[in-house]
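Can anyone check this?
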Amino acid sequence: MSRNETPEGVRWLLLIHQLPAKPAYARVKIWRRLKGLGAVTVKNSVYVLPANAETQEDFTWLVKEIAELGGEAFVCEAHLVDGLDDGEVQALFEAARDEDYAEIAAAARELGGKHTGEAGAEVATQVARLRKQLDDIVAIDFFGADGREPAEGLVSGLEAGLHKEVDAVTTTGTGSSPSSDPLNNRVWVTRQGVQVDRIASAWLIRRFIDAAARFKFVPGTGYAAQPGELRFDMFEGEFTHRGDRCTFEVLLAEAKLDDPALIAIGEIIHDIDLKDGKYGRAETAGVRSLIAGIAAAHDDDTQRLTRGAVLLDDLYNSFASTQGGKK
């Protein structure tokens, strides 16, 4: 489930609890357990999770732990009516997960600056630890926070670098090699609810990589490519974030497109998508607003691609006339 797609009438589980002042470690223990479950607080001592069988069991066990520590707790299922709406609660979850993903991304960037060689085993251990931490966060990312994709790309990039040292081959996160596959007359599959990187990547594919490309929109995870399909900007995809590069940049590299105008567009898409200000082009804010406007005005993914293509055609022509423009 992506941002701004809170289901109508969603139900929540509320854990309301009270702990004694002593022992002092009890509060820390329960706080850590709540954090591990992915719960967020909506008021002092009131924590919330989206209601399903698994989260209900998690809270049930936690109630037992709180009682064993001398506290009191109960769980209720709620439908928000007034004072706080579903979208605001979802935003709390997304903010919490984005913070978690930002920590993973920062650690991955720091680790990416280290050289292997004699320290290779230590780096490999740290990368494995980061992967586990990331997987743990994904497991409690109930609404698909934006921060997952950059973090996933950075960790996958570290893993690919380790495999390259061992095997002398760059891998994709799925073990396949997209560059060895023909890129013509394919069905290109991506996540529903397309935003900036997917809109721009689809435009790049159809205009410069596969003129006969057909696009298919599916749920964000768990989709297995069918014969003749290639997945892009998906966590398991053949073409997706790698290292600190967005999908658009990965496609440029794989298709060996060194057009200065496309590189300039890639820098803009990178900064909008990864929000790291790496390139700082003057056009970025305007393009961000225009694409956000397209997404807000059109719910249909095909319409978003069509409208985005018009914008990107004009942007490309402008940059082509100035050899990529100036930063």
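Reply from J.R.: I decoded it. Residues 86-112 form the longest helix (27 residues).
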